[in-house]
Amino acid sequence: MRQVRGRKNTSSYATSAPLSFRRAESDGDLTVLHPEVKFTVHCPNGRFVTLGATEVATRARVAGSAARGHTVTVNGRPGVISWSEDGTPLSLLAFTVADGRITGITALIDPARLALMDLPHPV
Q1: HEC profile for the chain?
Q2: Residues 6 or more apart from 45 whose CB is under 8 A from it?
Q3: In whole angstroms, what is the distance from residue 108 CA to residue 42 CA?
Q4: What is the average pLDDT across 69-86?
Q5: Which of 28, 48, 74, 82 has its CA at 20 to 30 Å from residue 16's CA atom?
Q6: Of the candidates 111, 21, 108, which has an alpha carbon nearest to the alpha carbon of residue 61?
Q7: In the predicted model, what is the mean pLDDT of the chain?
């Protein structure tokens, strides 16, 4: 079972990866992503994997939405949870960071699985 904690952990480690990823997503600044970063998305239709900084940044821009996001810690790793306007969890992302760069991103976009998790409420 995943352990997800809200913003109580405000260490730079817990917040820097999600903020860096948002910068890569919006500005195209790929320096925060390791060249061989792996982005794994778990959804109701299965698991999808994207490899490489350019591909991951492109996928993130395409998949981006107007959802409200909140920095969290997922099993000790920095992450982001987002909700729909009605407060339903949409996605949970966890980041793996090594040597100051994002080397892995795991996303859960499965409403049934998210509903079973003890997630923080929308802020």
Answers
A1: CCCEECCCCCCHHHHHHHHHHHHHHHHCCHHHEEEEEEEEEEECCEEEEEECHHHHHHHHHHHCCCCEEEEEEECCEEEEEEECCCCCEEEEEEEEEECCEEEEEEEECCHHHHHCCCCCCCC
A2: none
A3: 5
A4: 87
A5: 48
A6: 21
A7: 79
pLDDT at 27 over 70: no
Identify the band that residue 62 occupies on the pLDDT scale cut at 50, 70 and 90: low
Query: What is the amino acid identity at position 14?
Result: A
Backbone angles phi, psi at 3, to 5 degrees: -105, 120
C-alpha–C-alpha distance, residues 26 and 3, integer Å: 28
Residue of higher predicted confidence among 16 and 112? 112
Nearest to 95 by CA among 1, 7, 22, 30: 22
Distance between CA atoms of residues 81 and 67, nearest Å: 9
Task: Specify the pTM.
Answer: 0.77
Amino acid at 75: N
Identify any residues that bridge with 91 across adjacent strands, giving them in sequence order. Answer: 82
Q: Look at the block and give the residue holding tokens 């939405």.
A: 65
